[in-house]
């Protein structure tokens, strides 16, 4: 997600709109500086996680946000990044380079799919929040022939309008859109989530696992999970996604040796109930038939009538059923949750699970009304 660690020959398409933020490359250790500026501990190394179990049957392991050397802030060739994911058991990976579409031949057992991180980096926008406006939306299922894109000068600096033109662009291509890292540089808020949901964006990065995503919120901002609940409470049909936003692969150690933060993979992904074809994966995403995970694996996610059934493959798992406003309606110890949602519960319910190692899984909401 770091928006430009070095200049990108031929990618002037990054020059977006009014007051573009100059690439903060050329200056040594931009990623550390940025992390420090955001009050983060640069010693947080953001290592890959170990999944709590292997892949359960019926689910595909998928990555919806990762970068290759076709982004200015990654140096790994696309084929090498794809191989990195295939070696870790992924069934599909979307390339989401900044303002350029990337695709490679599929690997045995893993689809590589074309996406794009529609990246608008501006010095300012409205309302201002004391940080550059780093407004990023991912388009999934992009025509691989699209090449690079650029945004015209913005006629409005309103955050919602800037985001809106990006998702409209994605939808005009027939792609799905995803709102990325809403707390990174305080980029998006509830108003933006609701406005984009109205425009057809139903994927929200609740767990963008880059170390500077600030998913936990603070300083007056809600956590990304609370943001999700707030949107659901307002009736938006939005699904939670976990992603890596990886930029570094086999080069992670070298990046750290330079004193920079490495943005690595295998930290957040989705488990999708689909067969290994783009059409099936797309249908499952559209239906919300998937869950987000930071390593905790579920092998059963069921909803029958008003009965929830979830089973987790992990140690000392706890479940929470969450409803309107983010309120916890029910708690249970794992490995299995069975709960009949009381008749008086309205709105939505969703299930989250956590294991002893802190790994989490977020199931998608079910709307009761
Ligand atoms: Zn990114
Ligand atoms: Zn980003």
Protein described:
This protein folds into two domains: 12-293, TIM Barrel (Alpha-Beta Barrel); 296-369, Immunoglobulin-like (Sandwich), CATH 2.60.40. The longest helix is centred in the middle third of the chain and has 14 residues, at 159-172. With 369 residues, it is an alpha+beta fold. It has helices at 30-37, 78-86, 159-172, 190-199, 224-233, 252-257, 278-287, and strands at 59-63, 92-95, 111-122, 133-140, 176-179, 203-208, 239-243, 269-273, 290-293, 297-304, 307-313, 318-322, 328-333, 336-340, 348-354, 360-363, 366-367. 18% of the residues lie in helices and 26% in strands. The model is unreliable at 1-37 (pLDDT under 50). Strands 1, 2, 3, 4, 5, 6, 7, 8, 9, 12, 13, 15, 16 and 17 form a 14-stranded mixed sheet that branches. It has a three-stranded antiparallel sheet with strand order 10-11-14, with no helix packed on it. The structure holds zinc ion (2 copies).
């Amino acid at each position: 997600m770091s928006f430009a660690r070095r200049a990108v020959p031929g990618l002037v398409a990054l020059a977006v709109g009014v007051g573009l933020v100059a690439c903060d490359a050329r200056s040594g250790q931009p990623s550390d500086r940025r992390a420090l500026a955001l009050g983060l501990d640069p010693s947080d190394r953001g290592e890959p996680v170990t999944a709590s179990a292997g892949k359960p049957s019926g689910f595909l392991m998928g990555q919806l946000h990762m970068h290759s050397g076709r982004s200015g802030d990654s140096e790994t060739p696309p084929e090498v990044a794809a191989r990195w994911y295939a070696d870790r058991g992924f069934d599909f990976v979307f390339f989401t380079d900044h303002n350029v579409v990337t695709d490679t031949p599929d690997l045995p057992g893993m689809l590589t799919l074309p996406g794009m991180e529609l990246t608008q980096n501006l010095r300012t926008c409205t309302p201002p929040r004391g940080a550059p406006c780093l407004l990023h939306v991912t388009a999934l299922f992009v025509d691989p022939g699209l090449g690079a894109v650029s945004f015209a000068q913005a006629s409005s600096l309103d955050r919602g309008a800037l985001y809106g033109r990006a998702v409209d662009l994605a939808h005009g291509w027939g792609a799905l859109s995803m709102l990325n890292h809403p707390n990174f540089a305080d980029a998006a808020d509830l108003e933006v989530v609701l406005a984009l949901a109205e425009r057809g964006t139903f994927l929200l990065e609740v767990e963008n696992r880059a170390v500077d995503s600030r998913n936990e919120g603070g300083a007056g901002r809600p956590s990304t999970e609370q943001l999700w609940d707030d949107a659901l409470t307002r009736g938006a049909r939005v699904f939670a996604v976990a992603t890596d936003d990886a930029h570094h692969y086999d080069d992670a150690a070298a990046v750290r040796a330079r004193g920079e933060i490495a943005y690595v993979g295998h930290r957040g992904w989705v488990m999708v109930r689909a067969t290994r074809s783009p059409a099936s994966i797309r249908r499952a995403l559209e239906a919300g038939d998937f869950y987000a995970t930071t390593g905790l694996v579920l092998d059963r996610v069921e909803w029958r009538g008003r009965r929830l059934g979830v089973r987790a493959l992990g140690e000392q798992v706890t479940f929470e059923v969450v409803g309107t406003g983010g309120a916890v309606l029910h708690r249970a110890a794992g490995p299995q949750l069975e709960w009949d949602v009381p008749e008086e519960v309205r709105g939505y319910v969703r299930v989250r699970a956590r294991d002893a190692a802190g790994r989490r899984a977020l199931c998608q909401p079910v709307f009761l009304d």
